[in-house]
């Protein structure tokens, strides 16, 4: 009898030794890890449902931090290794800090994610009446495909500051017993003209007007009775008058809750995975960190989707000034701390989409269930507008992921010259910090309902946990 087991050929052996292995994805994971991923994501879904906009994400994060023994930062307090505290900037950024054995002397470990997501913001004068309907004018925030935001239920979130200084927080439309809002769309029967136009022309920013009411206040012969009725309802509920919209930040976001997707429940659909799907694992890695070598900071920033400008965006001086305060407390120079610091810019990348395969280059795309994605560079038009991580830092991160058995992959944002995008990585790199993007692959990025894999979300958590521990 001949042994059926074939000896491996010379070429097969050499291939095994030299060629990069295609990651096997979640198939490589055992059931216990997948079960842990599923459990971790129950917490993530709960986080998502109370964190639709950045202020709410800060509030939710602060609550989680407090439950884990974090106290509010006090610049006059002397901190010792193992101490945990949080710092908040203008209600829109939060930093969770775990003091390391060496404090900040050998640099800090930063995980930075953003908690703003694309949406429709109200204009300063939003309310108007047309054809006996009351509507809000909006100005979209971040990169959206406008047609995706029509004919879906929307909820309203944000803050109004009245002329008397009173602050009113608004959240209406997410719960079944609350009304929601909607941008109407043209019926297909009458869309022949619209359908023949390029999408960018068929749906314009000024068309994204949100329906907010349709009944008149009373039978008096007064004009704009429907608008008046809405003003009256807003006055009754919030005590606001029309001009109070001028000092408000009100955002319309999809009214969906985070939900399992697929018969196997392996995926999660939700609004705003980009980038709360990295923020939440970063938060959990910080709250579970146990006296690391170097001080660890998970920082959640705002305004990423519109260029990171402003005092709550990553180009703000807030984080670096805060680290300068920590440096001063440890008796070291801020610039020396930054030079030794390491950062994971925790942001998403596009997962390969079989429906749009030609948008990707298969060898350098990331895949759902492939684990966390490292994006060495972002930008567009020939690596323009990116910090592009060094070979040394990529090597450091690879070693860390290998050592900790973390499922990971690399990827570019789509085919060369098809488009592009950026993250906060370059702003951190400009502070003389080593940084690379590491996050979760997303399907339908920036759509009202984005998709991620539970395994990938959990791998992001394990990666941040390992990064803090190293
Ligand atoms: Mn992002
Ligand atoms: Mn984005």
Question: Any overview of this molecule?
Answer:
The radius of gyration is 24 Å and the shape is globular. The protein has helices spanning 10-18, 31-49, 54-67, 192-195, 199-202, 225-238, 273-287, 318-329, 334-339, 391-403, 425-429, 454-469; strands at residues 71-72, 84-89, 93-98, 109-114, 119-130, 133-141, 154-161, 167-172, 182-183, 210-213, 248-254, 259-261, 267-270, 296-301, 342-345, 349-350, 372-375, 408-410, 434-439, 441-442, 450-453. The protein has 470 residues and is of the alpha/beta class. The strands form four sheets. It has a nine-stranded mixed beta sheet. It has a seven-stranded antiparallel beta sheet with strand order 8-7-11-5-6-10-9, covered by helices on one side. It starts with 9 loop residues before the first helix and ends with a helix. It is 28% helix and 23% strand. The model has no long low-confidence stretch (mean pLDDT 96). The longest helix is centred in the first third of the chain and has 19 residues, at 31-49. Helix 2 packs across helix 12, helix 3 packs parallel to helix 7 (273-287) and helix 7 packs across helix 12. The chain contains twelve helices and 21 strands. It has two domains: 22-117 and 272-469, 3-Layer(aba) Sandwich (Aminopeptidase), CATH 3.40.630.10; 119-254, Aminopeptidase i, Domain 2, CATH 2.30.250.10. The protein binds manganese (II) ion (MN) (2 copies). One manganese (II) ion is lined by residues 114, 274-275, 304, 347-348.
CATH topology of the largest domain: Aminopeptidase
Radius of gyration: 24 Å
What kind of sheet is the major sheet? 9 strands, mixed
Main CATH class of the largest domain: Alpha Beta
Give the distinct bound molecules: manganese (II) ion
What's the β-strand tally?
21
């Amino acid at each position: 009898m001949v042994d059926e087991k074939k000896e491996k050929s010379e070429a097969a052996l050499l291939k095994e030794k030299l060629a990069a292995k295609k990651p096997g994805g979640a198939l490589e994971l055992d059931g216990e890890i997948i079960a842990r991923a599923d459990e971790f994501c129950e917490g993530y879904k709960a986080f998502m449902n109370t964190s639709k906009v950045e202020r709410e994400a800060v509030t939710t994060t602060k609550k989680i931090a407090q439950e884990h023994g974090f106290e509010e930062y006090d610049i006059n307090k002397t901190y010792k290794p193992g101490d945990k505290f949080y710092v908040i900037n203008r209600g829109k950024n939060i930093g969770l800090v775990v003091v390391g054995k060496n404090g900040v002397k050998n640099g800090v470990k930063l995980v930075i994610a953003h908690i703003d997501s694309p949406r429709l913001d109200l204009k300063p004068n939003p309310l108007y009446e047309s054809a006996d309907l009351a509507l809000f004018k909006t100005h979209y925030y971040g990169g959206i495909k406008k047609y995706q935001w029509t004919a879906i239920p929307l909820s309203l979130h944000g803050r109004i500051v009245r002329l008397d200084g009173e602050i009113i927080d608004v959240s209406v439309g997410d719960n079944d017993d609350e009304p929601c809002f909607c941008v109407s769309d043209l019926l297909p029967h009458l869309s022949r003209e619209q359908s023949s136009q390029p999408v960018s022309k068929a749906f314009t920013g000024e068309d994204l007007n949100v329906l907010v009411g349709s009944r008149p206040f009373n039978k008096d012969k007064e004009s704009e009775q429907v608008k008046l009725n809405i003003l009256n309802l807003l006055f009754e509920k919030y005590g606001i008058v029309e001009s109070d919209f001028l000092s408000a930040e009100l955002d319309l976001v999809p009214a969906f809750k985070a939900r399992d997707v697929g018969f196997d429940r392996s995926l999660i659909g939700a609004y705003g995975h980009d980038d709360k799907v990295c923020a939440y694992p970063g938060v959990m890695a910080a709250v579970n960190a146990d006296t690391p070598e170097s001080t660890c900071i998970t920082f959640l920033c705002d305004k990423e989707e519109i260029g990171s400008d402003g005092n709550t965006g990553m180009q703000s001086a807030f984080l670096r000034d805060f680290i300068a305060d920590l440096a001063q407390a440890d008796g070291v120079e801020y610039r020396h701390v930054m030079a030794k610091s390491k950062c994971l810019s925790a942001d998403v990348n596009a997962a390969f989409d079989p429906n749009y395969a030609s948008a990707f280059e298969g060898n350098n795309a990331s895949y759902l269930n492939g684990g966390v994605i490292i994006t060495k560079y972002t930008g567009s038009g020939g690596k323009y507008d990116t910090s592009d991580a060094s070979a040394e830092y990529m090597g450091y991160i690879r070693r860390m992921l290998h050592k900790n058995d973390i499922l990971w992959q690399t990827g570019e944002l789509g085919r060369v010259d098809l488009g592009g995008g950026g993250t906060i990585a370059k702003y951190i790199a400009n502070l003389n910090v080593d940084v690379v993007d590491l996050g979760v692959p997303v399907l339908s990025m920036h759509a009202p309902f984005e998709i991620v894999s539970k395994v990938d979300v959990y791998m992001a958590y394990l990666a941040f946990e390992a990064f803090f521990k190293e």
